[in-house]
């Protein structure tokens, strides 16, 4: 009988416990798929003796010495579901350099210092798999780095954070404000007690960096990603989007482009944006994730499913465990990091975007001409203008609301336009500024 593949599990929280359960429940099938049984050599946790319910595992396997577990000669594969930068980085570098395969769900570490992990994998001749780091159970990263390697990917647009998608979907469906929708998300368990990483876009930005790195064969880190969260999105913004036949989503967008000298670049950004309801991503509701990929030969592809949660994430982890275990038995390793293109990352100011700008203005002759002249000074073309009664100036007679949607222009020009508008006497307030994506 073939010797078992021995696993070291780092972390036994929500995801780790589901990994253990699936290993137990599907042990026969997994062994048949791999050609050898899987065995847990040890489980590293922060504290021993915690109640982990009816977890089907011997208590003697638990240890607080993660590094000691990794260094054991009988460990073949290290599974990391702890999260964070340190000490996870040190653990995984140690494992990879020692020739052990690594499966991780650690998006923050991959976005912060994936280079160190890939270099350690190359040094040790090891496999580094991380399907679970982006979009949970959705098979996404392997298609990008394997199935689509014969094609040229031009753009990746995605909803990759379930918490923010739940909040924005609730605001769209009920007319609730951000705070009210966040409270609902927290009560239902979709939002953490501290939701900062989600609602401020940090989680989505880390995933955007990973997606861009794979799609464009270029090292992209979290610091390269322009990031904006959803905390400033209001019920009025949602209503305005609805009036345009749109909805608002927190999007991660990674796209090829060229700079002023004609050199090819990539643009990577995360921000809330209006998209038309006809776009495939507009119908992605609740806490689901979806990623829309545009390639030369394959055309448009969409990957959709549950992007978070213990069981979905564990499913992706075990898919990677099967892959690396097969490789070990065959004496091969997967293709190493592909960063040959080495494209520069274009600053956000050079990214081409459209804006939806809502202004409360003095309702008197010449106001529209004055506002339009500001856009013209910055070479920003106006696509549509809608005028109504002011929404943000209660008690002030004679004010009006202008809602302006621009054509595509450099983001820096649009930002400068909005900055000048804020200084005009005739502009009472700039009540909303949102980007528009998807051809509205």
Automatic annotation (TrEMBL):
NADPH binds at residue 107. The active site is at residue 207. One of its GO terms (biological process) is threonine biosynthetic process. Keywords: Amino-acid biosynthesis, Methionine biosynthesis, NADP, Oxidoreductase, Sodium, Threonine biosynthesis. L-homoserine binds at residue 192. InterPro entries: ACT-like_dom_sf, ACT_dom, Asp/hSer_DH_NAD-bd, HDH, HDH_cat, HDH_CS, NAD(P)-bd_dom_sf. Pathway: Amino-acid biosynthesis; L-threonine biosynthesis; L-threonine from L-aspartate: step 3/5; Amino-acid biosynthesis; L-methionine biosynthesis via de novo pathway; L-homoserine from L-aspartate: step 3/3. Its EC number is 1.1.1.3. Residues 356-435 form the ACT domain. It catalyses: L-homoserine + NAD(+) = L-aspartate 4-semialdehyde + NADH + H(+); L-homoserine + NADP(+) = L-aspartate 4-semialdehyde + NADPH + H(+). It is an enzyme of class 1 (oxidoreductase). The keyword NADP applies. One of its GO terms (molecular function) is homoserine dehydrogenase activity. Its cofactor is a metal cation. Belongs to the homoserine dehydrogenase family. Catalyzes the conversion of L-aspartate-beta-semialdehyde (L-Asa) to L-homoserine (L-Hse), the third step in the biosynthesis of threonine and methionine from aspartate. This is Homoserine dehydrogenase. It comes from Micromonospora arborensis.
